Structures are given as structure tokens and as C-alpha cells.
Amino acid sequence: xxxxxxxxxxxxxxxxxxxxVMAGMAIAGYYLIPDADPxxxxxLCLSTVGLYGGGVVFxxxxxxxxxxxxxxxxxxxxxQVSLATATLLASFLLxxxxxxxxxxxxxxxxxxxxxxVASLVYDKxxxxxAIIGPLNMGLCRGLNLILGISVLPDQVPLWASLxxxxxxxxxxxxxxxxxxxxxxxxxxxxxxxxxxxxxxxCIGAIAQQQHQLGTAIxxxxxxxxxxxxxxxxxxxxxxxxxxxxxxxxGVLSLIVMNAAWVAAFASFPLAMLVVxxxxxxxxxxxxFAVT
Length: 291
Description:
single chain; mainly alpha; Tetracycline Repressor, domain 2; 15 helices; about 75% helix; globular
């Protein structure tokens, strides 16, 4: 019973959400505070795991009928997990996510509420719209980055605008993912590639403003190395399998993108610590579905 429940939460993706929060804390400057209290780091990592996990489980709950046709191997349509059990698990995870955030401060708590609402809106309504869906999904990730920044509430107004960058990136991945089952359109994939380039350029520009471009460049290059080759393969042959590989690579590479944020606002060693999450995420992705 435990394995199907874990499959619902997409464990490999949970690791990427932790990287989001770690990047946000770097942007806030929390790692540069001498003798900073480690407790908020732990609470926010628990919070993002709960919020992301709850969101993806509710996604399967709302998609149960569609998955019965397109993905009958998923835990709910295959009968491994009942709809009631999945709903209970999703609700529990979201509550854990919100409670953990409130343990840090009210700003983090309200952001966790906002993430929960945004994820539920996407799961039930947003994903069915070709324009609103990608932006809605991106909003969840953007707010997740800001959740990390909220470790120091006074830094949120200064840096909240950076949440637009993961919104653009995740919107691009979500656009691509619409072709996972039946194949996609090369034009959509090319637009996604342009958005990928825009994201890399923006992070590089911000790193330059922080006088840390040299530190961030290795991670930005690694980021590009992971996301562009599978996307190019999907453009050449826009089959469901190739698009699925491009989506998987794009999601897991969020860890490297977040490492670039840490390099831009903190230090190279801390950025390498974030990159170390990538092998774990990729290992989990071999066992559990990413999408």
C-alpha cells in the first residue's frame, strides 16, 4: 500500500520543491547570517514537501476518470489506491504544508495558503485552459520560491518579483507537457525553447547585478546542458515519448536552476550542495513517475 501512495506524491518532484525553497532562502540572504537558526530551514522544507505532495495527489484525484483512459497504470485507476484514500492523503499533506509554514512566521503561512489555493485551482480548472493552465502551474512554483524568501519577511517585498522567472519556466514546461500522450507541435516546443533561453538570460543578468556572474555561470551552463538536448530531440521528432523525456528533464533540472540562484546570492559551495539533490531526484525518477 505504501508504494502506490508514494507514487501519487511523485517523490522525484518533491526534491525539486525543496531546491526552490533553498534558493529562496539564499535570495533572502539567510545563509549569510552568522549562526542563523536552522529550524526555519527545516520547517520550510517540510512545508514545501507537503504543499507540492498534496497538490500532485489532488491532481490525480481530479484526473481519475481521464487517467482511467490515458494512464490506467496510475495508482487510482489501477485500483491500488482508492479515491477516498487519495483525497485524504492529499488533504493531510496540504495541511502539513500550511502548518509547517506557520511555524516560521505569518508571511510564510499565508504564502503556503496561497500555494494550496493555486494548486487546487490548477488541478480542478486551470490545467484545462491552454493559456491560463501553464501560467497557473508556474504561479505555484513562483510562490514556492517566494516561500523560501519569506524566511526573512522583510525581504519578500524586495525580491518577490523574481517569482516571475520560475513562472515563465514552468509555464514553458507545462506547454510542452500537453503533448506527452498524443504528441506535440514543433512550434509550441520552439516557443518553450525561447522561454528557456529567456530564463537563463534573466538569471545571468541578476547574477551580474549581484557581482556573482562568474559563480553562477557553471550552473547556468549545466542547466542548459540538461534542458536543451531533450527539447531539441522533441522538436525534431515530436512524439509523446520524446516530449515526455523533455518534460522530465525540464522538471528535474529545476534543481540546477535553483543552484544558480544560490550561486548568485550566496556561494559556490552552497550551490554545489543544492546540485547534490539532483542525483537523488534522478534516482527517484527511475522508480517513480515525474508526470
